[in-house]
Design brief:
By secondary structure, the chain is α+β, with helices and mostly antiparallel strands. The protein folds into two domains: 135 residues, Winged helix-like DNA-binding domain superfamily/Winged helix DNA-binding domain (Arc Repressor Mutant, subunit A); 52 residues. It has five helices and ten strands; from the N terminus they run E-E-E-E-E-E-H-E-H-H-E-E-E-H-H. Strands 6-5-4-3-10 form a five-stranded antiparallel sheet, with no helix packed on it. The protein has a three-stranded antiparallel sheet with strand order 7-9-8. Strands 1-2 form a two-stranded antiparallel sheet. Helix 1 packs across helix 2, helix 1 crosses helix 3 and helix 2 packs across helix 3.
Length: 198
């Protein structure tokens, strides 16, 4: 199953003691989120989401194996080196909970991160691998539904009714009518006053 999915990482590695693979694809989309692997940024509907380093690493660890169980031990080794002195269990829980908060996910009804009791976590959302951001894809890759196109046409017609020129001419007409009505009422009031004076 995993062989069919495009790899997130190529076989090339960055030189250094903590060697990490270079991204083979730059962007990953899941739900309303868009992950830029090169910039290490997470976007939600085009807006950048603040993501702490450990939370980002946990997200990567889960996305690397979609649908599979990522054990707590795997996360611990990925997030904290062997010589780090922390409460690993509490920190893994905290990191995954922060990730869920960022994604708007819940352990009770997971959309992205599912808890596998006594084992670890699994990324359960559908993942799409992209070479360019969604906003820059060609129009042929993003086709608009006929209903959405019709609603855009209706919206432009409504906006046309409320354009500055249309509004100014309507307000001008309303002002003239108001003056005419006011003049008629004033004339009627003068006539009534004159009739009572006689």
């Amino acid at each position: 199953m995993n062989a069919e999915l495009p790899p997130i990482y190529s076989q090339e590695f960055v030189k250094g003691s903590n060697a990490t693979p270079l991204p083979a694809t730059r962007y990953i989309r899941f739900g309303m989120f868009h992950l830029d692997l090169r910039r290490e940024e997470l976007l939600k509907n085009g807006t950048r989401v603040k993501l702490q380093g450990k939370v980002y690493q946990a997200l990567l660890a889960l996305i690397e194996k979609p649908g599979e169980v990522v054990t707590r031990e795997t996360l611990r080794m990925r997030l904290w080196p062997a010589n780090t002195h922390v409460n690993y269990d509490a920190n893994v829980n905290t990191t995954v909970n922060k990730l869920r908060q960022v994604l708007g996910d819940s352990p009770e009804q997971p959309v992205f991160v599912d808890t596998i009791p006594r084992k670890g976590y699994s990324f359960v959302a559908e993942i799409e691998y992209l070479d360019q951001p969604v906003e820059q894809q060609s129009p042929t890759t993003r086709q608009e539904s006929p209903a959405l196109a019709a609603s855009r046409d209706d919206e432009s017609k409504v906006r046309g009714l409320f354009s500055p020129v249309a509004l100014s001419s309507k307000w001008f007409t309303a002002g003239v009518i108001s003056l005419v009505v006011a003049g008629m009422l004033f004339g009627a009031a003068l006539m009534l006053y004159a009739y009572r004076a006689v």
